[in-house]
Amino acid sequence: MQHLIFFNTKGGSGKSTLCEYSSKELQRLGHTVSVDSNMLR
């Protein structure tokens, strides 16, 4: 199992948008994706 982690940073870095785009693209490529939305605050 591989993990892709978006670290919390100050400012409007767009982590939730980046995570959403990445998860959709990985799913399109046939990967199983699990997103923990509690981490996207």
TrEMBL record:
It comes from Candidatus Enterovibrio escicola. InterPro entries: P-loop_NTPase. SUPFAM superfamilies: P-loop containing nucleoside triphosphate hydrolases (SSF52540). This is CobQ/CobB/MinD/ParA nucleotide binding domain-containing protein. The lineage of its organism: Bacteria, Pseudomonadati, Pseudomonadota, Gammaproteobacteria, Vibrionales.
